[in-house]
Design goal:
By secondary structure, this protein is an alpha+beta fold. It has six helices and seven strands. The longest helix has about 50 residues.
Length: about 250
């Protein structure tokens, strides 16, 4: 009963505000009035208002149209233990609603991605050309090997280990990541803290490259954007279509 009382107070407050808005709308010649704010006087008022704000936070979606009269009726009936719709009907309705919302949001994301792709177009083409020129020249250098995927690497130091990791292993490494221009964007060496991660949960160039190493080896990898973060890059960290250069030392295989 206590929760019912709180809910009814909430509904009454919203209904009062709605009624006030309708009254003002009818008086077209009346001067515009400031909206009437609900006055919180008691603890129950505070709880009721907070519940309303929490509910409203989940309704702030321009794609979602809400009939507040039906919403309040559903809340009131639910608290009183009655319903116009059966549980099965409500489940089907909400499943259909969720499917529609997911489809709308998916389409919106697609539009945003296409817009972003168009904006990044010139930078993507520039970086692709730089990558092509770099890799073509780099593979001519002594000690540089190119794999079938386009990954290039160079052995800097051979360790004493005889075991190579598989993509199902977790590895512990030290690394420094650079762009073509030599600028460092990430380094466990600078942090003085080795990194540890499952080999099947990193970029493709790492997954392939580290399987070529034994424990104790230090390689330099030249990773095309196709094997790194793709055309999109990573916002705020990796520019689109970026070739990445990593110096990696394999410390441990788990």
């Amino acid at each position: 009963m206590k929760y019912l009382k709180i809910l009814l107070m909430l509904l009454a407050a919203v209904s009062f505000t709605t009624a006030q808005k309708k009254s003002v709308a009818k008086k077209e010649t009346s001067p515009k009035k400031e909206p009437v704010m609900f006055q919180i006087k008691t603890q129950e008022d505070s709880v009721s208002y907070s519940i309303g704000q929490n509910i409203a936070a989940n309704l702030k979606d321009p794609n979602m149209k809400i009939n507040f009269e039906a919403l309040f009726a559903g809340m009131k009936d639910g608290v009183e233990g009655k319903s116009t719709l059966s549980p099965t009907e409500m489940q089907q309705i909400m499943m259909g609603f969720n499917d529609r919302m997911m489809a709308i949001r998916s389409e919106q994301m697609k539009i945003e991605q296409e817009k972003k792709r168009a904006e990044m177009g010139p930078e993507i083409e520039k970086n692709k050309k730089e990558q092509e020129a770099f890799l073509a020249e780099n593979k001519k250098k002594e000690g540089v090997v190119e794999t079938a995927s386009g990954l290039q690497y160079k052995v800097l130091t051979k360790g004493t280990g005889t075991v190579s990791p598989k993509d199902t292993n977790t590895v512990k490494v030290h690394y420094t990541g650079k762009f073509i221009d030599g600028n460092i964007f990430d380094s466990s060496v600078q942090r003085n803290e080795p990194a540890e991660f499952p080999l099947n949960q990193v970029i493709k160039g790492w997954t392939e490259g580290l399987q070529l190493m034994n424990t104790g080896d230090k390689f330099e990898f030249y990773i095309p954007y196709e094997l790194a973060y793709g055309e999109e890059g990573r916002e705020g960290a990796i520019p689109p279509a970026s070739l990445l250069i990593f110096e990696v030392e394999l410390l441990e295989i788990k």
